[in-house]
Design a protein that fits this description.
The complex is a heterodimer of chains A (about 290) and B (about 290). Chain A is α/β, with parallel strands linked by helices. Chain A has 11 helices and 11 strands. The two termini of chain A are about 20 Å apart. The chains are: A alpha/beta (about 290), B alpha/beta (about 290).
Chain lengths: ~290, ~290
């Protein structure tokens, strides 16, 4: 294909088909890199079944106190914006789960009583499947923010065409994935829930100045609120994927539709071409590039 | 207040569909939408007589005074959130700033201060004896966990001790989910009968167990993959997790939701199943949690 583009697949609402679309797009491309950024609930590996060739732990620094040096001056407690430190009697307590790992307490301690220790947050896996490069992040259960894992994924070496499978929502994790994209593919369901969250995702990518288009998924007879939203807001509809029991069954068993069904192979190949064309067009008309 | 939280791990399994049906069936007087990233419960709850809205302010974020900045790069060096954009003058990227104030402390010319800004709306909706707590977050604002706690707190303030409150949760296992789990009496997991659904279910159950929150499981759209649905049931049995029932796929569900109705307000295949699940849930709350 030879196109250099990073495409983020997102939706606002969960379960609209981000992973289904991402893995099948990556599978029909010649040498794509698929990045699973849904680090809280990563599922790309279930479909792609890659051979894992590398794995490392992503850590984040957390403060540790040397009680012998701490004189209970409270400077760190007062400075911490997240209330992650507390002084009980003469003992300084540190709440790792609330700590944002900003490093201020360690810097500000007048006695040098604090230092930072790296704690595991999750893992990054690198794999191969045929010509595809597979990257996936997995946050440890009980952790609260996967942002450092997503940042680590974004630093990994990738091929020209990158498909980013984003987490649901429109919060801090999604802004990380969208920030790295040239083009955003929004996947939407035909419900008022789908349309409402499509609007939120569309607002987010617009705010971040990213070109986008929507794929209408699970379409069926009757009114499609997401389609109406797209038409009213000048959001390009790049395709629609009708609800199909056979596709649902293939996916629920963890199969790649493009490998099992000729129709879907053709469908995703054409969809990929349409998307890369949009992405190319967007980067051509962007004077900053 | 006794709280039943509807969760799923995976997105789009039917949390809001189940939560809204539970609210109708239980005639709940108190309920909340804890999915502040993508709130949808209000879309099927109809209209309210009263609508109280107040500003939600997250942590104050850093602002650089362009007249004072000497471009020394010290703030850029210490910021771990990539929130400083070098230039003349340096600028803060508000979306990335977490409000830690490290930059404020290292700036040699006191060019940085922090400013509170509105990042969302907290809403308390009322009709008859019902209260509905929900929120919206402005685009690109973080701190959803904190907002979820606020949504729960404002519900607690206005509801009585013995009431059963229904909370609609968010997907994933990160900060909003952890915030929504704290202090609830039961987390009812809505699972999807797929490999992804089972994998995600296991992770959200592990999260709830870390916080010592009792869990129970139901399967939605079970007949789209009966084999996977059975696997989920077997998994629950082996883990000693109460399995409270399964809901068939129902094309009418989409139509009901698009008319702003809950599944139990229309003639549907799913309505009967949800009623049974609701009864089973109440039974479980009585037996295990002694309410």
């Amino acid at each position: 294909m030879g196109t250099k583009a990073t495409i983020a697949v997102l939706s606002g609402k969960g379960g609209t088909g981000k992973t289904l679309v991402s893995v099948n797009l990556a599978a029909v491309a010649a040498n794509a890199t698929y990045i699973d950024c849904d680090t809280e609930e990563p599922n790309g590996h279930i479909f792609i079944k890659p051979t894992i060739v590398g794995e490392y732990v992503v850590t984040e620094p957390k403060p540790v106190v040397n009680q012998d040096l701490c004189d209970g001056c409270r400077t760190c407690v007062d400075a911490c914006a997240f209330n992650a430190l507390a002084l009980i009697g003469k003992n300084l307590l540190i709440f790792d789960e609330i700590c944002h790992s900003c490093g201020l307490c360690t810097y500000i301690c007048p006695k040098g009583a604090l230092r930072e220790e790296q704690r595991p947050l999750g893992i990054v896996k690198r794999g191969r499947k045929n010509g595809m490069t597979f990257l996936s992040g997995e946050m440890n259960v009980g952790e609260s923010s996967a942002v450092p894992i997503i940042k680590a994924l974004m630093r990994e070496q990738s091929t020209d065409l990158v498909i980013i499978d984003s987490p649901p929502g429109s919060g801090c994790l999604v802004t990380e994935t969208v920030g790295n994209a040239d083009f955003c593919l929004l996947v939407a369901e035909p419900t008022i829930f789908g349309a409402h969250n499509l609007a939120m995702a569309h607002d987010l990518v617009t705010l971040m100045g990213k070109p986008s288009a929507v794929l209408l998924n699970k379409t069926q007879e009757g009114e499609n609120p997401s389609e109406i939203y797209a038409k009213e807001h000048g959001l390009k509809i790049i395709g629609s994927l009708p609800y199909d029991e056979h596709l649902a069954l293939l996916s629920s068993d963890g199969h790649l539709a493009v490998e099992e069904d000729e129709h879907y192979h053709t469908y995703f190949k054409e969809l990929l071409e349409a998307i890369t064309k949009e992405a190319r067009h967007a980067s051509d008309s962007d004077p900053q590039r | 207040m006794h709280q039943i939280l509807i969760l799923s791990g995976k997105g789009g399994t039917g949390k809001t569909t189940v939560a809204s049906a539970f609210i109708k069936l239980s005639e709940a007087k108190a309920y909340a939408d804890c999915d502040t990233d993508a709130p949808n419960l209000h879309l099927v709850m109809g209209s309210y007589e009263q609508d109280q809205k107040r500003d939600y302010r997250g942590l104050p974020k850093a602002v650089i005074d362009p007249d004072l900045c000497i471009n020394c790069n010290k703030c850029y060096e210490v910021c771990r959130f990539d929130a400083i954009k070098p230039g003349n003058p340096y600028r803060i990227i508000p979306i990335a700033c977490e409000g830690c104030n490290y930059c404020t402390h290292v700036c040699p010319v006191e060019a940085i201060h922090s400013e509170e800004a509105k990042v969302g709306d907290l809403k308390l909706l009322k009709r008859n004896n019902e209260v509905f707590s929900t929120a919206t977050l402005l685009m690109g604002s973080g701190n959803t966990g904190k907002l979820v706690s606020e949504v729960k707190n404002q519900l607690k303030e206005v509801s009585s001790e013995h009431e059963v409150a229904i909370l609609d949760g968010s997907p994933g296992i990160g900060c909003p989910v952890i915030a929504s789990l704290s202090g609830v009496d039961l987390a009812l997991m809505v699972a999807e009968p797929s490999l992804s659904g089972l994998s995600d279910l296991k992770r959200v159950i592990a999260s709830a167990r870390q916080l010592q929150v009792p869990v129970a499981v139901i399967v939605n759209k079970y007949d789209t993959n009966e084999r996977k649905s059975a696997e989920i049931e077997v998994y629950c049995y082996k883990e000693g997790i109460p399995f409270l029932g399964k809901i068939p796929y129902d094309k009418m569900a989409t139509a009901a939701i698009n008319r702003g109705k809950t599944l139990v307000e229309i003639e549907s295949l799913g309505a009967g199943a949800i009623r049974t699940i609701y009864e089973n849930t109440l039974q479980l709350m009585k037996e295990r949690i002694h309410i």
